[in-house]
Amino acid sequence: MSAVELTAAEAARCALRAGLPLAGERHADVAATANHIHAVISTLRDLDFGETLPAAHAAHAAHAAHAAHPVRAAHAAHVVEREVADASL
């Protein structure tokens, strides 16, 4: 977490600048939430993911490998055909 945290007054000013005026009793809660989000993001930035693929790429690669198997590919085609037939009923 950074040494400088958002204060309640700063949260109120930022919200007002963004066109989202806050009721006075919400200033401290909004500041605390923003500080927590900042701490989580800072922690995530410090993690070393190395050569880990983003989730979307990993899922696509797994699906492609799974679908490349001839029996699975035929089954997938059958499922799609059946869904199309069921939808036309």
Structural class: mainly alpha
How many strands in all? 0
Low-confidence runs of at least 5 consecutive residues? none
Gross geometry: elongated
Termini Cα gap: 58 Å
Q: Kindly estimate the percentage of residues that lie in beta strands according to DSSP.
A: under 5%
Treating each run of at least 4 consecutive H or I residues as one helix, how many helices? 4
Output the helix-strand order.
Answer: HHHH
Mean pLDDT: 77
The largest pleated sheet is described as: none
User: Roughly what percent helix?
Assistant: over 70%
- Rg is 25 Å
Walkthrough of the structure:
The chain is mostly helical and 89 residues long. The protein is built from four helices and no strands. The chain has helices at residues 8-17, 27-46, 55-68, 70-88. Helix 1 crosses helix 2 (27-46). It is elongated. The model has no long low-confidence stretch (mean pLDDT 77).
Task: Give the SSE map.
Layout: H1 8-17, H2 27-46, H3 55-68, H4 70-88
Helix pairs in contact: 1-2
Summary keywords:
89 residues; mainly alpha; 4 helices
Quick structural gist:
It is elongated and about 65 Å long. It has 4 helices and no strands.
